[in-house]
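Please fill in the sequence for the structure shown.

STRUCTURE ENCODING:
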């Protein structure tokens, strides 16, 4: 399961995986996707709950898993919306489906100059939490 936070290159990864699905299958790797571009965020419902947003995995996640053809091998699922579930207690709900989870995020900082305040976003190497 790939969880790519905002601005971490998730779309590029998903497009590459989608474009190489057949080559991956020959290596025993299956990329499951709900979207034309490789993103499966549509299996997460997002709704407004007062001042906050609420997130819930919907029936499409089960449909995505049901589309799996490999009995053995590696299966990859990628969705930016999975980042809403990044707390360990929430991710544990995926334990029955997933053996490892890759979380990619970008660290940002604020740089204050002498004449004006500027906000810079500095990319650092992705950090993987498995």
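FILLED IN BY: designer on duty
SEQUENCE:
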């Amino acid at each position: 399961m790939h969880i790519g936070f905002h601005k971490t290159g998730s779309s590029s990864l998903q497009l590459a995986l989608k474009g190489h699905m057949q080559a991956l299958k020959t290596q025993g790797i299956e990329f499951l996707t709900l979207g034309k571009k490789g993103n499966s965020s549509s299996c997460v419902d997002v709704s407004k709950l007062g001042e906050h947003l609420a997130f819930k995995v919907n029936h499409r996640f089960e449909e995505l898993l049901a589309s799996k053809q490999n009995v053995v091998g590696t299966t990859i699922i990628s969705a930016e919306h999975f980042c809403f579930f990044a707390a360990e207690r929430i991710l544990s709900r995926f334990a029955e489906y997933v053996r490892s989870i890759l979380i990619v995020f970008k660290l940002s900082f604020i740089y204050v100059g002498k004449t004006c305040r500027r906000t810079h976003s500095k990319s650092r190497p992705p950090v993987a939490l498995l």
